[in-house]
Amino acid sequence: MFVARLPAARVWIALVLAALLVGAGLPAPTFAKDFPLIVVVDCGVRSGQKCPDGSTIVGVRTDQVSGRPATYKVDFAWVMKQEPTLRQDQELCIEVRDNARDDNVLQAISILDNCSGPAPRVKSGKGGKDDDQANSDTVGTTGDPDPEPLLCGTAINGTGTRSWVQEEFVSNGNPFLVYDVISGSARFEVFYEGNSVKAIGPFVPADLDGLPFGIGVTQAPYGPGTSTLVTVVVTAAPGAQWFVQLSCGLTA
User: Fold this and answer.
1) Separation CA 13–CA 8 (nearest Å)
2) What is the pLDDT of residue 252?
3) Considering the entire predicted model, what is its pTM?
4) Distance between terminal CA atoms of the chain?
């Protein structure tokens, strides 16, 4: 699975946290499986030419997985009726599934009219060939909450100010909040039933460098109440890059 942009050690601590929760019989973080990507077809022929027949696995270039331009392999077999002909340097908005195959190939599951939805929220060892260029945005910079609640434990990478509603499944919980600031400054806050239950920061990268693995971990107790939803708000400087993950609610 994909978790964009964080170094391996920082992903490792989140995975260790998940393992501890499972070992304790508690709900572990869950990760998004499908996400939209804007990609440019790269099948090794001249620009505008049709990609060679014989294989549905085609190279694509995108900067929306790791935050850096890189080349990935995508299997278009499931969407050939939507897009029967692929051409070199063709730009597409595709929805991919990152765990549909056992190899390092993403599975395209649909062709989208636009990629206005959330960008990749998670990552795995499926790496692309890095083109060693500058980082770019992965989840947008709007302060408006996403219209549909995200599942608890969803890992979010983003830039600027962002907020979203998250389903915690319990109305009295004490979830873990994992956070990092890659560049700029960012403040992290969790709300429950309109009240702030945890507020930390603002932080800059240097503030977290002395912590284990350079990543912050705290808890955000909430409830008891009637709702199982919480709102996560990241208030960040323009262009600031950050990571946050709020685990599933644990009974307080």
Assistant:
1) 9
2) 47
3) 0.49
4) 30
Task: Please write down the HEC assignment for all residues of the chain.
Answer: CECCCCCHHHHHHHHHHHHHHHHCCCCCCCCCCEEEEEEEECCCCCCCCECCCCCCEEEEEECCCCCCCEEEEEECHHHCCCCCCCECCCEEEEEEECCCCCCCCEEEEEECCCCCCCCCCCECCCCCEECCCCCCCCCCCCCCCCCCCEECCCEEEEECCEEEEEECCCCCECCEEEEEEEECCEEEEEEECCEEEEEEEEECHHHHCCCHHHCEEEECCECCCCCCEEEEEEEECCCCEEEEEECCCCEC
At 14, list the tokens. 């989140």
| The two structure tokens encoding residue 63 | 């900067």
Question: Cα–chain-centroid distance for residue 68?
Answer: 14
Residues of the chain with pLDDT under 70: 1-34, 65-67, 98-103, 114-147, 250-252
| CA dist., res. 36 & res. 119, Å (int) | 6
Cα separation, 89 vs 60, whole angstroms: 9
User: At 241, phi and psi to the nearest 5?
Assistant: -110, 135
Instruction: Pull the structure tokens for residue 16.
Output: 């260790």
Tens-place pLDDT, residues 7-55: 444 444 555 555 544 444 444 443 445 678 888 999 989 999 999 888 8
